[in-house]
């Protein structure tokens, strides 16, 4: 008679919250991709670091794989458990552990929601500047595991820039404390950065110390209607040269169509093929006057056809909803998602080539573009027609993604700008990484996770 490995886990950790409820298995076994059928062995919800270590050591002994779980808002299948893995959800480890006023750092557990981090920072008159639409449900551990970027990368960079130190449990069950919040630390390899963006393949983040900064001056939001794709980067150049930007995002008329169907209001009477929403410092009348001057200049050049400047926080939120609501509005359609990036300097040529490729290869599909164009990151979502079989739809999209990879290679780009590789993109990793790089990455993983229990099947 075979004894379930869960029996030994319960014996070791009798206080561990462990569930095999069918609803929980489905809920915790998938992320936002919805492409794979969740089939985890069970869901473990540890309450502290010691329980996490015991779980990982148990996994090494039993050979049961672990899938780390945060808010599961990922879009690459990185948090999917479809092959009898133990999902380790860190949602119970969700507290603020401390604030250091001198160092301007906030120490938190990995299961805390990004929005809760924002609120905690504001209580001390500071901000944690990484931000994106899923702030209410995504967790800081998952943000670290994917080096999340978001809407204000232009000004603040990615998650990596704001991690002062980490505590991690490796795939072997060892607890490491990485960097100890030092500003300067020239003592060899900074292992902290191996775990940032590792997608849970090296271990689990169990504590993070986040760097905080001063809140920016009062800001305003400006929405442009842009008549043609070639003007997008011209508008960006005009804004960047004269305004202190925090964000510069674009979306297409098809994106606006879906957001409006989801409840948002149209910003202009006439529909434009492209839109830009930008946020900038507007602490005084001079800054606001400069923004109006930028708009007038772009209008004179024919780069924009209309615009609206926020006059209140409520209006700013309404304008941002047009961009931040896109992913949610598309979710019911189960779109195929591309998350790609190139250097800002090659964006114009890349956009032109991509437009030609997508028009040629997807004549029958609804293609929705949007993204952080100010940092070279584009999201391309393909909406499945109702009459096409899902498997056939995915196969067609993967065929076109192979062609997209060739374009990215020519422009020195990346197949994953901020969502990670996960299950969705591992076939395309070689388009952005050399054979030598991938071999080194595999070697690093083998050292930190010698038995291969951490999120197997992801990334490679």
Automatic annotation (TrEMBL):
Its cofactor is FAD. Residues 36-215 form the FAD-binding PCMH-type domain. Coiled coil: none annotated. InterPro entries: FAD-bd_oxidored_4_C (IPR004113), FAD-bd_PCMH (IPR016166), FAD-bd_PCMH-like_sf (IPR036318), FAD-bd_PCMH_sub1 (IPR016167), FAD-bd_PCMH_sub2 (IPR016169), FAD-linked_Oxase-like_C (IPR016164), FAD-oxidored/transferase_4 (IPR051264), Oxid_FAD_bind_N (IPR006094). GO terms for biological process: respiratory electron transport chain. Keywords: FAD, Flavoprotein, Oxidoreductase. One of its GO terms (molecular function) is FAD binding. It holds the Pfam family FAD_binding_4. Belongs to the FAD-binding oxidoreductase/transferase type 4 family. PANTHER family: D-2-HYDROXYGLUTARATE DEHYDROGENASE, MITOCHONDRIAL (PTHR43716:SF1). This is FAD/FMN-containing dehydrogenase. It comes from Tahibacter aquaticus.
């Amino acid at each position: 008679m075979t004894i379930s490995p869960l029996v030994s886990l319960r014996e070791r950790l009798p206080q561990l919250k462990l569930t095999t409820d069918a609803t929980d298995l489905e809920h915790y076994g998938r992320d936002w991709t919805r492409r794979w059928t969740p089939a985890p062995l069970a869901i473990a919800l540890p309450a502290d670091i010691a329980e996490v270590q015991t779980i990982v050591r148990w996994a090494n002994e039993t050979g049961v794989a672990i899938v780390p779980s945060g808010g599961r808002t990922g879009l690459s299948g990185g948090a999917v458990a479809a092959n009898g893995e133990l999902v380790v959800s860190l949602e119970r480890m969700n507290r603020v552990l401390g604030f250091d006023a001198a160092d301007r750092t906030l120490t938190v557990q990995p299961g805390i929601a990004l929005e809760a981090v924002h609120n905690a920072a504001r209580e001390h008159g500071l901000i944690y500047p990484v931000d994106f639409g899923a702030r209410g449900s995504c967790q800081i551990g998952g943000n670290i595991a994917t080096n999340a970027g978001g809407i204000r990368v232009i000004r603040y960079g990615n998650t990596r820039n704001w991690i002062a130190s980490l505590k991690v449990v490796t795939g072997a069950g060892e607890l490491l404390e990485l960097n100890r919040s030092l500003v300067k630390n020239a003592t060899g390899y900074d292992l902290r950065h191996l775990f940032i963006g590792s997608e849970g393949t090296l271990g689990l983040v169990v504590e993070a110390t986040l760097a905080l900064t001063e809140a920016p001056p009062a800001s305003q939001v400006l929405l442009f209607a842009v008549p043609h794709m070639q003007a997008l980067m011209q508008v960006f150049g005009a804004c960047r040269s004269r305004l202190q930007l925090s964000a510069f995002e674009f979306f297409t008329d098809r994106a606006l169509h879906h957001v409006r169907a989801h409840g948002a209001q149209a910003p202009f009477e006439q529909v434009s093929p492209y839109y830009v929403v930008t946020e900038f410092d507007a602490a005084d009348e001079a800054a606001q006057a400069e923004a109006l001057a930028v708009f007038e200049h772009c209008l004179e050049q024919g780069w924009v056809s209309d615009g609206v400047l926020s006059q209140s926080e409520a209006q700013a939120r309404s304008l941002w909803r047009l961009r931040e609501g896109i992913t949610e509005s598309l979710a019911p359609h189960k779109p195929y998602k591309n998350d790609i990036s190139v250097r800002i300097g090659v964006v114009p040529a890349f956009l032109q080539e991509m437009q030609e490729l997508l028009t040629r290869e997807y004549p029958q599909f609804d293609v929705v573009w949007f993204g952080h164009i100010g940092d070279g990151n584009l999201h391309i979502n393909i909406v499945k027609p109702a009459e096409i079989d899902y498997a056939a739809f995915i196969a067609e999209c993967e065929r076109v993604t192979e062609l997209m990879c060739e374009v990215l290679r020519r422009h020195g780009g990346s197949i994953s700008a901020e969502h990670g590789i996960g299950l969705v993109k591992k076939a395309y990793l070689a388009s952005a990484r050399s054979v030598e790089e991938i071999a080194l990455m595999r070697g690093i993983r083998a050292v930190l996770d010698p038995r291969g229990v951490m999120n197997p099947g992801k990334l490679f």
